[in-house]
């Protein structure tokens, strides 16, 4: 099947939030993806980053160490009304993710002794903080909400997975954890299709020398099949808004060197593959714009990192963060 781009019309300027150190300490900024001016939203002492827009675009959750510990904060889309949601002196809360209804946030909560990362949730008003995963020596990473909000998926390394990662699911209200991926030696970084019927993830087979590739399965983890066949390690899969295509980063020979990675796009059937960046720096964490026309990503080049966009056909590369500082963690406004 040919690689087909399906876009949705949008008259509004596409807006991105991102993290930058151009003001010496890390802050959350926004920028027009067509190349407009940059605006500081969080504007506080301490380190702010990892912005995440609420589903309706009215608020931004982010991580901040302004009070001496990594915690989850929320602010209005214009930077006003900043308030702290989590209060965990023995934990560092990072990487917030909104529930589809905008009422709850999931995050990665890391305990220092023993050093282990769990999945936690807190209501958007700061009430009812709770840990969802067990207190063992398991690492639990990259929470993702199901489109209907009934489950949270995450990557977990446990004794029963022999130290490799598998994908698990748990209810946001707590309860038993369910293993989703069974037949692979490793699996992680789950991403639901927009309609919630399929799951994309990176997986690794058991035979010696196998590398991490892109897989698609049913939403319950059944019928997993490999769709990428590139010479290198695949990471960070993400769906196009219409569910017809995926983008991912590929590290290794697929990008021209062991220390490089490039952004690729592939149709969800596993057919046509397109390389969108070509052997310039290390290109990470692609995300489709809500209208499906652009992909944003972070580029590491020398001692700099910047936020760039490229058309889904590989044309129109644009650096949105020229100047000073380190820039990354871009997040699209849900309306584009």
Dominant shape: globular
Rg estimate, integer Å: 19 Å
Q: Strand arrangement, largest sheet?
A: 3-2-1-28
* H-E order: EEEEEEEEEEEEEEEEEEEEEEEEEEEE
Discrete helix count: 0
The residue-averaged pLDDT reads 90
Largest sheet: 4 strands, antiparallel
Structural class: mainly beta
- The amount of beta strand, in percent, is over 45%
Give me the count of strands: 28
Distance from first to last alpha carbon: 28 Å
Low-confidence stretches: 1-7
Helical coverage, percent range: under 10%
Q: Characterize the quaternary organization of these chains.
A: single chain
Q: How would you sum up this structure, described in words?
A:
The protein has 336 residues and is mainly β. It has no helices and 28 strands. The chain has strands at residues 15-23, 25-32, 38-40, 48-53, 59-64, 71-76, 83-84, 91-98, 104-112, 115-123, 130-131, 139-145, 152-157, 165-170, 178-179, 186-192, 198-204, 213-218, 225-226, 233-239, 245-252, 257-267, 273-275, 282-288, 294-301, 304-311, 318-319, 327-332. The strands form seven sheets. A four-stranded antiparallel β-sheet has the order 3-2-1-28, with no helix packed on it. A four-stranded antiparallel β-sheet has the order 4-5-6-7, with no helix packed on it. Strands 8-9-10-11 form a four-stranded antiparallel β-sheet, with no helix packed on it. Strand 18 (213-218) and strand 19 (225-226) form a beta hairpin. The chain is globular, with a radius of gyration of 19 Å. The protein starts with 14 loop residues before the first strand and ends with a strand. Mean pLDDT is 90; it is low at 1-7.
């Amino acid at each position: 099947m040919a690689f087909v781009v399906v876009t949705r019309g949008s008259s509004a300027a596409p807006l991105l939030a991102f993290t930058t150190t151009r003001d010496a300490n890390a802050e959350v900024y926004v920028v027009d993806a067509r190349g407009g001016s940059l605006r500081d939203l969080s504007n506080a002492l301490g380190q702010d980053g990892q912005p995440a827009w609420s589903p309706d675009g009215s608020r931004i959750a982010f991580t901040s160490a302004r009070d001496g510990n990594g915690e989850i904060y929320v602010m209005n889309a214009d930077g006003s009304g900043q308030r702290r949601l989590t209060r965990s002196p023995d934990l560092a809360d990072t990487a917030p993710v909104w529930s589809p209804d905008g009422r709850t946030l999931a995050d990665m909560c890391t305990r220092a002794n023993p050093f282990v990362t769990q999945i936690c949730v807190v209501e958007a008003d700061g009430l009812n903080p709770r840990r969802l995963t067990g207190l063992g020596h398991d690492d639990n990473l990259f929470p993702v909400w199901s489109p209907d909000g009934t489950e949270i998926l995450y990557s977990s390394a446990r004794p029963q997975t022999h130290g490799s990662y598998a994908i698990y699911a748990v209810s946001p209200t707590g309860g038993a954890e369910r293993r989703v991926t069974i037949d692979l030696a490793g699996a992680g970084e789950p991403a639901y299709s927009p309609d919630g019927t399929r799951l994309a993830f990176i997986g690794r087979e058991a035979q010696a020398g196998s590398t991490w590739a892109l897989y698609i399965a049913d939403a319950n983890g059944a019928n997993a099949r490999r769709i990428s066949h590139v010479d290198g390690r695949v990471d960070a899969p993400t769906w196009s808004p219409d569910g017809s295509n995926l983008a991912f980063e590929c590290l290794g020979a697929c990008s021209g060197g062991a220390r490089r990675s490039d952004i690729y796009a592939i149709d969800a059937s596993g057919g046509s593959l397109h390389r969108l960046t070509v052997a310039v720096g290390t290109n990470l964490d692609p995300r489709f714009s809500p209208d499906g026309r652009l992909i944003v990503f972070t580029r590491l080049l020398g001692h700099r990192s910047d936020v760039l966009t490229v058309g889904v056909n590989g044309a129109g590369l644009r650096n949105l963060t020229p100047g000073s500082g380190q820039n990354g963690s871009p997040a699209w406004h849900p309306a584009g």
